[in-house]
Amino acid sequence: xxxxxxxxxxxxxxxxxxxxxxxxxxxxxxxxxxxxxxxxxxxxxxxxxxxxxxxxxxxxxxxxxxxxxxxxxxxxxxxxxxxxxxxxxxxxxxxxxxxxxxxxxxxxxxxxxxxxxxxxxxxxxxxxxxxxxxxxxxxxxxxxxxxxxxxxxxxxxxxxxxxxxxxxxxxxxxxxxxxxxxxxxxxxxxxxxxxxxxxxxxxxxxxxxxxxxxxxxxxxxxxxxxxxxxxxxxxxxxxxxxxxxxxxxxxxxxxxxxxxxxxxxxxxxxxxxxxxxxxxxxxxxxxxxxxxxxxxxxxxxxxxxxxxxxxxxxxxxxxx
Length: 320
Hints:
The chain is α/β, with parallel strands linked by helices. It is 54% helix and 12% strand. The strands form two sheets. A six-stranded parallel β-sheet has the order 3-2-1-6-7-8, sandwiched between helices. It has a two-stranded antiparallel sheet with strand order 4-5. Helix 2 runs antiparallel to helix 3 (99-115). The longest helix has 38 residues, at 16-53.
């Protein structure tokens, strides 16, 4: 066994140099660890200071805030296009008026979709036409037809993004109202189908349940919308500073300016500029820029109009 002694490692005594090396390594390890801890502490402190300087945006809508509600414009905000024009298409299908009226509705709708803004003359013309068309008909009849027209022309044109915003308010326990120049009956149908609280809309006069062909007051447009929201807020005990409003049109700046949380949705050029100047929130759910902003060639614009008119004529021919 003695011959194998050379395989057994012998214990060697530490020299002064090895002791120095060990102590140096230990000291370096401690220093490195301390520097890392100090660096992490400085980073955490800097992050805390940044949070103090730029506080996180508070959660909105606020869950359980019973003094808050949301007000949504309808045309081109909740739904692509104008509800009144879609309603007109449905009435034509049911022979409430002739092809000439439908072509005019098609032109107005095409213009609205291309330009992205409301033309006062078009809107007034559409309202006058609608009033003359429904005169003498029962309110209950038009409500029933309106339910069918929603399924035929409107359901597939609801903007999913805006619908999600409305649902967020509902999920927070807040009431959500449509505010539109469209007939209140049409707006009420849309609000009910979307699960919203209700609707503020233009009121057509009726006597004993029959339309007279006149309005009560004026169309719910521009400043009238703001007055309707103000009146509803007072009746519901709402704090407008805690409410939100959503619209695509500069015509609704009076309504948007009433609330503490205004949103520009698919905004026209004037509203976009106004919103940016006042740091309002913007959301755009359109897939591309409006034709008017990108300078769509005249031929393309004519083609779109021709397409709308052709569709109207084709529909008429199929019916006859």
